[in-house]
Amino acid sequence: xxxxxxxLMAGAGTAGLGFALAGAxxxxxxxxxNAATPKAFRGYGELVADPKKVVDLPxxxxxxxxxxxxKDTLDGGGAVPGSHDGMFAFPGGFGxxxxxxxxxxxxxxxxxxxxxxxxxxxxPACPGGTTTLTVAGDRLLGHVxxxxxxxxxxxxxxxxxxxxxxxxxxxxxxxxxxxxxKKHGYVFEVDPFGRLRDAAPVPLTALGRFPHEAVAIDPRxxxxxxxEDASKPYGLLYRFLPRRPLGxxxxxxxxxxxxxLSVPDVRDLSAVRELRTKLAVTWVDVPDPDATTVSVRxxxxxxxxxxxxxxxxxxWSGDTAYIVSSYxxxxxxxxxDHSGQVWRFDPKHSTLELVLRLEPGGRFxxxxxxxxxxxxxxVLCEDGDGENxxxxxxxxxxxxxxxxxxxxxxxxxxxTFSQDGRWLYANVQGDGLTVAITGPWWRG
Length: 444
Known about the structure:
By secondary structure, this protein is mainly beta. It has a single domain, classed as TolB, C-terminal domain (Neuraminidase), CATH 2.120.10. Helices cover 3% and strands 38% of the residues. The protein is built from 2 helices and 28 strands. The strands form 6 sheets. Strands 1, 16, 18, 19, 20 and 21 form a 6-stranded antiparallel sheet that branches. Strands 2-3-25-24-23-22 form a 6-stranded antiparallel sheet, with no helix packed on it. Strand 27 and strand 28 (433-438) form a beta hairpin. The protein is globular.
């Protein structure tokens, strides 16, 4: 059965905030995804109002804002660009973290752009890209642009070889937008440690040209999994079989085979309502990954592929990937209404399992980016209507608020933990803030 918000709240008091979770994956949502013995997570307590009206946190936690779009200055000059989105923290040695952060910017915006420095620019007409920040805890030590001239860099993902895959959420071309000089809708690899032989932006065309959202790589096989946030028709879930799996920085340029998800007799994942449902999956080769004449998601017979409304975050943890569908609306053509799903993909058994479903009308809606701490705790970034939270679900199916954007209704994005698990870094997109959060993570 599907547990709705009222049922959860009746059984868990005010702690039940709108999630329904599958008991079969309690250990994952307990904050112990990779532990042998699940820990009974009970949340961190109610949020305390921030007198500065920036971030509300549980008692004992604190935050710092260490990067402000348009107000702070990059190393070498230029304002910090805005529209922060996906982000990943790499270990930088000596207790430092190196963050690579996306900027979801489109041509014509008045939000500060990523500076166009020599050797970093793909298309001079575009303001998007990435910046790289070096931090020690909540102290900013360095801040530089690392990719420029790209379009709507939304999410992405880290690689096992410590690079960042930055995704363009578009399929615009010079034919559709005259200001552009190149085709867009690609994935770009950014190496914060300078190991790419050619650091100039190179689109990874074999990974497809479509409205990319996020990426995760199986660290055992090197297979790349990608989400697509699109509509009319809805986007797909893809996997990429690289010619040089786990080949290190630049290896994805060697190409490979792009495939789309197919679940027999399920044409739209939003149709699945029963938690713990497991679906056997197969994969279908993409005829034209570069979408020369037809969008990738429109190149298939409808009976051969499975669509995912608002496919958003994807994150690899242990031996599985967690995939987010932000919401679905029948009025927009989806099979059913929901306010969010999380699926667990098991590559060994080729199955998808529905482990979370948010019913419409709950306090939480629109989960987007997802991350997992070094200890296994899942954090969801909310991009919904009204208030937006960082959310930490528990073992018994109760979601607990971890943080609230107290300054605006802007979404959270790019949540990522330092390697030691002490610091959670996250972005408030519309406000152009990057914050560091720390506290007694073990207390829950």
